[in-house]
Design brief:
This protein has helices spanning about 1-25, 30-50, 65-85, 90-95, 100-110, 115-135, 145-175, 180-200, 210-240, 245, 250-265, 270-285, 290-295. By secondary structure, the chain is mainly α. Helix 1 (about 1-25) crosses helix 11 (about 250-265), helix 3 packs across helix 8 (about 180-200) and helix 5 (about 100-110) crosses helix 7. The mean pLDDT is about 85.
Length: about 300
């Protein structure tokens, strides 16, 4: 089931690029849209667990979950949305693909270990593949704001790494609690941070939400992207290690490019095919130890997801 759920999050997050683009084109303020998405997703999942009789009091005002929400949701998405005003989505995808490397470096520093050469080469290979996939849309005039935007995305990915590692620790400490519930609280707190930041920076026009063009991308991102995708990401964090599920950041740009070709008639060039091969090869090699370990335990395809546990 681990591989199946990993493929699900790659596909889900690959489609969210397109949904976010449609949402922004509808006129909704980007940070406000992200804030609404994560706040409502968190509330819906928490309500579900409350109706199931789950005790959630210990997670209310949890500093650790607030910290995870700040890192994983607020910092990752606020920096990304701000940066995409000044850099192309292709370049943003390439910079976001540093996420697994950030996680690996922070993890090695905490455990006081050296990086394995094979894993480093595999991650660099996958990262190069992302560059090839996104290369047709990267060319852009360089300015001070362009540089600031690039730095902002890298900072966001550093926080993504810290949030993922801390999330793994919390999921281990509360291994009897569903990862979907833990994820719901971090989404709620991260969404609230985004909304507050949006009202200060963007001063959003809430009336735009009355349009179906604005509503359907948010609904898709709430139920498919946040509840489904981010919930499964937390589940994979609980079952494996922080690096493995984060490699969706390599695969999803490839899926997004294919979707862009079919849905928005965006061109696909030969260099993108080379990039796709590098991505898939690099991800496979980087996660080979994880595949081998869970294959021996019979957990790769065994069904064991239970949102109500």
């Amino acid at each position: 089931m681990i591989i199946i759920n990993y493929l699900f999050i790659c596909i889900i997050f690959g489609t969210t690029f397109l949904a976010i683009k449609f949402g922004i084109e509808s006129g909704v303020s980007p940070l406000f849209s992200a804030g609404v998405r994560f706040t409502l997703a968190g509330l819906i999942v928490i309500t579900y667990f409350l109706l199931k009789g789950q005790n959630v009091k210990k997670f209310i005002l949890s500093k650790r979950l607030m910290y995870i929400g700040f890192c994983l949701t607020f910092m990752t998405f606020s920096t990304l949305y701000w940066a995409e005003q000044y850099i192309t989505s292709g370049l943003a995808a390439v910079l976001s693909a540093t996420g697994p490397m950030m996680i690996l470096l922070f993890q090695l520093k905490r455990n006081n270990k050296r990086i394995e050469r094979k894993q480093l080469i595999a991650l660099i290979m996958a990262f190069t593949g992302v560059i090839f996939v996104c290369l047709p849309g990267i060319s852009q005039h360089i300015s001070y704001l362009w540089v600031a935007a690039c730095v902002a995305v890298l900072i966001g990915e550093a926080f993504y790494g810290l949030g993922s590692i801390t999330s793994k620790e919390v999921l281990t400490d509360f291994n009897s609690v569903s990862p979907f519930l833990i994820n719901a609280f971090q989404m709620l707190y991260g969404g609230i941070f985004l909304l507050l930041f949006s009202f200060v920076i963007e001063k959003p026009n809430i009336s735009i939400l009355s349009s179906w063009d604005a509503q359907w991308p948010i609904l898709y991102l709430i139920f498919i992207g946040s509840i489904g995708g981010h919930g499964l990401y937390s589940w994979l964090l609980a079952k494996t290690n922080p690096v493995f599920p984060s490699t969706w950041l390599y695969v999803s740009p490839l899926i997004a490019s294919v979707l862009g070709y079919f849905v928005m008639d965006e061109p696909i060039k030969p260099i993108m095919a080379v990039g796709g091969i590098l991505i898939l090869s690099g991800v496979f090699i980087a996660n080979w130890s994880t595949f081998s370990m869970y294959r021996k335990q019979g957990k790769l395809f065994k069904k064991e997801v239970d949102v109500s546990e």
